[in-house]
Design a protein that fits this description.
protease; alpha+beta; single chain; initiator methionyl aminopeptidase activity; ten-stranded mixed β-sheet; cysteine-type aminopeptidase activity; 346 residues; Cathepsin B, Chain A; 16% strand; 12 helices
Length: 346
Amino acid sequence: MTSYSSPLESSVPSRHPVPQALIPPSPLLLSHLHVPFPLTPCSLQTPVPPPPPLPPPPAMRAIPPHVYGLEKSQLLKEALEKAGPNPKGQEDVRRLLKLHKDRFRSDLQWILFCADLPSLIQEGPQCGLVALWMAGALLAPPSGVPLERLVQVAMDRGYTAQGEMFSVANMGRLAQETLGCQTELLHSGLGGPNRDLILQHLIAGHPLLVPYDEDFNHEPCKRKGHKAHWAVSAGVLLGVQAVPHLGYAEDLELPGLFHPVPSTPCQLPLLPKESSSGAIFLLCKQGKSWHYQLWDYDQVRDSNLQLTDFSPSRAADGRVYVVPPGGVQAGLCGQALLLRPQESSH
């Protein structure tokens, strides 16, 4: 605040010199002095400095999303602070598509089907249970099912020792018990007849759980199961020769990209042929990032189909893991899990 002095304050005539301490304070003077308390003779001789200014109000910080195990892990706390707030689903998908638009074939038009999934950062080897928790947002009641319950039930049933899940079949049993949903276990990989089944499932807005080998950037790779990881998908980007006229609208920012119009019946497009490479991308999330990732369908298929061996580093780390009879190959290789709400039909 800026103080303005009065001429009366700067010039007070004194015709009869009198000791300063005997001069009573003038009411007129007091009316022009910006002080919060009455002046005393002592205060006229030794002015009291004004109080320090109030500190600025603290900046408002966004409330971070809940992270299971955060209170026990300094590493997770640091990762969360660096990552920033959890992005909104539609904004994150749009960011991703803009980032990778050069990957999309120019001879095709593209249709995006995507149900919004929450994000959750895993602690330890809980990637499968975290992926199931994300899928539960589309399957369970609005209150949701806590991750702690998924972990506890999986331990009680003998499916896991620390949160790891090396059996797609056990994952299906766990989903049925905790989420009350329908499950369909797929064998023989993501290609062949399973391919159209998966695409129709995602177009309908239902989640897919798929194990794969995780590369350093979380994308699918081929490490013979040594980097076995889980992802959940509830979205697919299809490259088609022509977009049906009924029920689709072109994106205002990305020409050539179409979305189904909400609450409007739409004609399903012709699915790309299996020999048409680079025409199908899965929108996936996994437990080590807030963000959606866009993976070529064939890349996910190939990674899922070569999960054969248990990681040597895990075998030597002194921990106990629950691995089904037949090992990683019997529990994960070429398998995926379709999840549907209980009342849903195929």
